[in-house]
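Collaborator request, handled under Task 6.
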Amino acid sequence: MHPGSSGDFRYSYFRQMLHTVRSNFTTHRLCEAIDVLPNTGSPILFLRHDVKISLHKALPMAEIEHEYGMPATYLVRSDGLLYSLAARQARILLLELVQMGHEVGLHFDLAHETLQSPSFLRLVEAEIEAACDRIEQIICRPVRSISFQRPLPLLFGGPLLINGRINADGQELRERCISDSGGKWRDGDPLAQIKRSDDSVLQLVLHPIWWGDERMHAPQRLQEFFDFATREQSSREASLFDLNLAKTLPTVRRQGICALVSGGKEV
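Structure tokens returned to the collaborator:
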């Protein structure tokens, strides 16, 4: 497998990864970072999922991690275009994640105009607190970790804490990171990297939308998701869903439109 290749995103491969991680690292949730960093003992790994597209895609991965006894952090949207936390099934799913020992945090999106301001965090602090409150009302515990939809220069490799919450892209957590961003392992085979890693701290950033039972490339996986999500929708509803899918994940197009990865950047 060469760097930048799509690689293997089957659940069976995910199991291999967890088996290798368990042999080489102690796994932690992001909310534990303040207690275990700086790391002076055995190698530790933070297992993180950014849930941008689909809550139901998170459940199979959470169940596999629970089977392996490996806690993870699931960062979810409180006001996403493609799923709503107000839905009964969404609330049930979040509670299932918590009951399995996983952490549920916030994956927050900032408006483009806000990003231009050097005081953007102050400007959106109330929005972040409101978003966390919506999640906390469901899981009945505080939101302790946060990630951002767009790469933010001031936070990417920045402070570990933001308003008392763990910044998933803080410097201590981003020094060494393996990510499936855009449905590709951009630095090559992650299994090989985990096996040969001599890092004391490693973060594994995953996006559940790319994973499934069968081996597929990213555009195929999005097409599969689109077909499932819109199977009972009218053509007008499906068109709106498709538009929201493109807004949420602008860097990859589903196979039914165009199997094309644009020049955008995903965290």
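The cover message to the collaborator said: "Residues 1-6, 258-267 have pLDDT under 50 and may be disordered. The longest helix spans residues 120-139. Please let us know whether this matches your experimental observations."
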